Amino acid sequence: HANGLTEARALAEPHPSLWRKIGYRLFPERVPIALLPKGYLTPVDGEATYGELLLERSFLYVDLIKACFARGVKMHAVLPITGGGMKKIMRGSKAWIYRIEELCEPHPIFGFIQEHAGLTDEEAYGIFNMGNGIAIILPSNHVSGFLSAAHECGYKAIHAGRVVSNPQKERKKVVLAQKKVSYEEDVFGLSLADVN
User: How much is the pTM?
Assistant: First the structure.
């Protein structure tokens, strides 16, 4: 699945225009220099370089969506989680609370980025998908059909959480229970239109 590549580039590239575009937002106290001394050639976990991991293929999930339609799985929303991280779940039109009880295991690149950029869980999950490539909102009685379709297509899928009504009915909210992190619709001064 695609991710916030622009943000990830800020670790490897000292380019001033890139720094002005994104780096200062991520690392306001730092000067515009590459944080990885070898840039994209920096080894990650001794297996691949930072650049190689950033270039791994993206999942598009077309086969999964087709399999869900074929099984009659009712989907209320299909939400790719890319740059903008878990905040992207708030794309729906109603002020729901999206309570995420379980998260997918992050790809090693995200731990590497988090460590080298000094990002908290709140910052990391608010910028990157951290291994959670897509959120599909569906009725609880369709979860098992969805999970079967995902596994048949070769995806690791989980029943991550639930959508609950928001008593305030004013703002959307995403709660990452495992990480004790939550985001509200206007997080970091962004409106929903800015996140989409």
Answer: 0.80
